[in-house]
Write a structure and sequence with these properties.
single chain; mainly alpha; 2 domains; two-stranded parallel sheet; 19 helices; disordered N terminus
Length: 479
């Protein structure tokens, strides 16, 4: 091992350096998370400029989140093996390159392909950054605080994306939403090389290419089936075949991973109720967010006739609510645990989405703004409990993999949110979307309310006991 590489237990806690490392990690999170939402406000402009269909718009968003979801766990495992700083900087390089290519995309197909390059780089950032944070802040209370800040940045970045995107699209054009990533990505790459010490797990897992292929097959086939269904019909041969392939891939993945000594996804993680609850929460909350942003953007611009800038500015209250709720959630998790923020988040998400059921051209703006504020506050409360539960009960040496599972759950939720709500709201021909679809908004509200389930089941003495027993399972495997 190079003398520049230190084991995870050798990092000396230096408060100023800890905060500098946290800042660099948060910059990467800001880039990746904001890019997942900033594109939404540009969709009508992309549709007009590149002559995109509804399915094309869905893939513009989902190609990014799908690749992220497919590669996050592999990237987290690779970081534990090859070095977290090395993988982190490589991810920044690829993400920046992908952003530059997106800004000059000549067609929709090229834009989707370049978004996938972005996502490959992005997959090397979030789980690796979370692992770096977990191994930098070794005191549990300080780690909870740092992850709370991390969760706060995640919430703010998701909200700022539509606002910043609206201003850029209206003033410069939709391509500008990708330009801003380039200087920030380059700066983060330089800072990471200077500030973040190299580290890796003492005993990292071996690559599991079979599982990686099955994850990609499962997510891609399921997403493709959902997007294609409105136009082709759920009973069409193509859709039925894709659904069958996704089910077979999921079954094969469970069988394969249960038999491998060092699986890509260690199924023993899910014996921890807090970890399993965090996974469920991530999928449900980000499903709601993905569907919310996709439909709301189309509603404001295509139904209400607002410009991209006007539509983005209308979501400022949602951004503000997320920004205020996210750090509050971090403090609540650090001081009182995850139950209270989750119990507050669920009704806020559900009520916020419920206010958008029955939208029409003349829906009062006050009703919209109240819905945005409630939904934003609910979502801001969710991220810190997810991130903290993902790594707090796992060995620090495997924090990259554990954090990647949580990040993967987020992206799976966002991918399915866009695919499912977009397909529900699509008209029979599949050529247009009705963003006022009551059924789509009811589903979003239901997903928000479902956060109550892990809030009740995965917190408390019994859940804590399952986490401790799960951690003990790994004691003989890793330090």
């Amino acid at each position: 091992m190079s003398n520049r590489v230190r084991p995870v237990t050798a990092m000396e806690p230096d408060p100023r350096r800890q905060r500098a490392i946290l800042a660099v990690c948060c910059i990467s999170l800001l880039l990746v998370s904001m890019d997942a939402t900033i594109v939404n406000v540009a969709l009508p402009s992309v549709q007009r400029d590149l002559h995109a269909s509804v399915s094309g718009l869905q893939w513009t968003v989902d190609a990014y989140t799908l690749v992220l979801a497919s590669l996050l766990i592999l990237s987290g495992s690779a970081a534990d093996r090859f070095g977290r700083r090395r993988v982190f900087r490589s991810g920044l390089c690829l993400f920046t390159l992908g952003s530059l290519l997106c800004s000059v995309a000549p067609s929709l197909d090229c834009l989707i392909a370049f978004r996938m390059i972005q996502a490959v780089g992005g997959s090397m950032l979030n789980p690796v950054a979370l692992s770096i944070i977990a191994n930098t802040f070794t005191v549990p209370r300080e780690r909870a605080w740092a992850i709370g800040v991390w969760g706060g940045v995640a919430g703010v970045s998701f909200a700022v994306g539509p606002v910043l995107g609206g201003v850029l699209v209206s003033s410069v054009g939709w391509r500008s939403i990708f330009w801003i990533n380039v200087p920030v990505g380059v700066a983060a790459m330089i800072l990471a090389g200077r500030i973040i010490p190299e580290s890796r797990a003492p005993r990292p897992r071996r690559p599991d290419w079979g599982a990686q292929f099955l994850i990609l097959t499962f997510l891609a086939s399921l997403t493709y089936a959902i997007i294609a269904a409105p136009a082709d019909g759920w009973s069409s041969g193509t859709v039925v075949a894709l659904v069958a392939v996704s089910l077979l891939a999921a079954t094969a993945l469970l069988v394969l991973e249960s038999r491998r000594r060092e699986p890509l996804i260690d199924l023993r993680f899910f014996r921890s109720a807090p970890f399993t609850g965090a996974t469920f929460t991530a999928v449900a909350a980000f499903f709601a967010l993905g569907g919310f942003l996709f439909l709301n953007t189309l509603y404001l611009q295509n139904v209400r006739g607002y410009s991209a800038a006007h539509a983005g500015l209308l979501t400022v209250p949602m951004a503000a609510a997320m920004g205020l709720a996210a750090p509050l959630s971090g403090r609540l998790v650090a001081n009182r645990g995850p139950r209270l923020p989750l119990m507050l988040a669920a009704p806020a998400l559900a009520l916020g989405a419920s206010l958008l059921i029955g939208l029409n051209l003349h829906t009062p703006l006050l009703r919209l703004l109240v819905g945005y504020i409630l939904f934003g506050a609910g979502f801001g409360l969710v991220n810190a409990p997810i991130s903290n539960a993902a790594v707090s009960g796992m060995p620090r040496a495997q924090a990259g993999v554990a954090g990647a599972v949580a990040s993967t759950s987020r992206q799976i939720g966002a991918t399915l949110g866009v695919a499912v709500t977009g397909s529900i709201a699509a008209v029979a021909s599949g050529s247009t979307v009705d963003p006022t679809s009551a059924l789509a908004w009811i589903l979003i509200a239901a997903c928000g309310l479902s956060v109550l389930v892990p809030a009740i089941v995965s917190t408390g003495p019994w859940a804590t006991g399952t986490a401790e027993r799960t951690r003990a399972l790994f004691a003989s495997d890793w330090p």
